[in-house]
Design goal:
By secondary structure, the protein is of the alpha+beta class. The protein is built from 11 helices and 20 strands.
């Protein structure tokens, strides 16, 4: 019995073991299926990626490499050939007449531009100028009339310069002006002459009290008497303007060497100088610097009057050197006309009060006692004084209370200049009250007391 039970148990164990083994095999097979599937997909992906980058990540046969290299070289050479062909085509186009024209093409002409081109036709009332590639220019109407003298000398084929006056002509032409172009060119030449300090020998056509009228390129210019050299400057003993004009008129019809010192196209003004430009390197200025260098401010000496003008007196200091005594420096008293006090050739004592740019300013009154020094002891604000009217100006009237001491009677006290001149007369004496007194600044203001002193 025991034996049968043992056999029964052994049979059951085998059956269970067999079942267990089967289940194990199934589980093993089941779990083995997934890794195989993943491995297959991964292998395929890796293979594809390897195929895409085979030339970068994996060695390839020598034949394949030669084929690939030949292909790359062929592509590069093809691109280079295309580039060279494109450049050659561009250069070929550039060398054609149209290419050259396009290369040199500028912006279309605008009003006031100066343009140039060949004359292609001349009619009774119009001139046509080729302005390719922008069109055709035309000179007609009043511009044709204004330039008739110039047009008479023009032939078909001549190249002319003209100024654009209108770009929107109803017939499609670009309207031009020869006369305005000529004027523009003349003013441009004037500017160039100023820059180059060009000396011009020009005719004197007229004279006035201020100087001479000379002509250049059809434009009349002015040569101020102050810009004449010493040998041409009229030296009139009493400085009479009519006599100065008479001397200037003697130069009409002669030629004079001048330079242009000012050109104002908009105002149509040309200013000339016979003295010419003074440059830092010129021998003339170096010589003058040496002469002027011998003097200093404060020096006093005796000179000779060489000229008298409205604004003062010229005094010769030594050969080649003159100084100016402005009329405000002639005397402490008011000086209206220097001609009444001096004559050419008269000796005068002067003092140097300023030296600037090789020009010497002189004073005669600086050698006289300053009356304001003593006046401060006698006058003060509020004091009533008598004064004589010596001058009218836009601010009022000047009244002198003693030699060299004058004060202003302001026009506001009278309401208008007309009323002031009715109340006060030149040369008459009136009573005033000092409302301001400053001896240091040499200023004095007076109030009218409304009383005339009979003298």
């Amino acid at each position: 019995m025991f034996k049968k039970l043992k056999e029964k148990l052994a049979h059951k164990s085998e059956a269970e073991a067999d079942t267990t083994n089967k289940e194990a095999v199934k589980e093993s097979e089941k779990s083995a299926e997934k890794p195989v599937e993943k491995k297959t997909k991964k292998a395929i992906a890796e293979k594809e990626r390897t195929a895409e980058t085979a030339d970068e990540t994996s060695p390839e046969p020598e034949k394949v490499r030669r084929i690939r290299k030949a292909r790359d070289t062929s592509v590069a050479e093809s691109k280079t050939a295309d580039t060279i062909a494109a450049l050659a085509a561009a250069n070929a186009k550039k060398n054609t007449p149209m290419g050259k024209l396009m290369e040199g093409m500028k912006n279309p002409p605008a009003e006031d531009d100066i343009v140039e081109g060949p004359v292609i036709n001349i009619e009774k009332a119009a001139v046509y100028i080729d302005l390719a590639p922008f069109g055709t220019g035309i000179i007609y109407g009043r511009e044709f009339i204004a330039a008739r003298d110039i047009i008479k000398k023009i032939n078909v084929g001549d190249t002319v310069a003209a100024k654009v006056v209108d770009t929107n002509n109803k017939d499609g032409y670009i309207e031009l002006s020869l006369k305005e172009a000529r004027q523009a060119m003349i003013w441009s030449e004037a500017e160039a002459a100023i820059t180059a300090h060009t000396t011009l020998e020009l005719p004197i056509i007229e004279a006035n009290k201020g100087g001479l009228i000379i002509t250049w390129q059809g434009i009349n210019g002015f040569l101020p008497a102050s810009q004449l050299k010493a040998e041409h400057y009229p030296r009139i003993a009493d400085g009479d303007k009519d006599k100065i004009l008479e001397e200037l008129r003697k130069m009409i019809g002669t030629k004079i060497a001048v330079t242009i010192i000012t050109a104002l196209p908009k105002e149509g003004k040309l200013i000339f100088s016979e003295k010419g430009p003074v440059t830092a390197n010129s021998a003339e200025i170096k010589d003058k610097e040496q002469i002027v260098g011998k003097y200093k401010i404060g020096d006093a000496f005796e000179g000779v009057v060489t000229g008298i003008v409205d604004f003062g007196v010229f005094v010769k200091i030594e050969d080649g050197l003159e100084g100016l005594v402005h009329k405000s420096e002639i005397d402490w008293s008011l000086v209206e006309d220097p001609r009444l006090l001096f004559k050419v050739g008269q000796k005068v004592k002067v003092k140097i009060i300023d030296i600037k740019e090789n020009k010497i300013s002189l004073s005669i009154k600086a050698l006289k006692e300053n009356p304001w020094t003593e006046a401060v002891k006698k006058y003060k604000k509020g004091l009533v004084v008598d004064g004589v009217i010596i001058k009218f100006n836009k601010h009022g009237a000047l009244a002198s209370i003693e030699e060299g001491i004058a004060g202003l009677v302001h026009v506001s006290e009278f309401g208008s200049e007309e009323k002031l001149r009715k109340a006060l007369e030149l040369g008459k004496t009136y009573t005033f009250k000092i409302t301001l007194f400053d001896a240091k600044e040499q200023k004095m203001a007076l109030g009218f007391v409304n009383k005339e002193i009979k003298k």
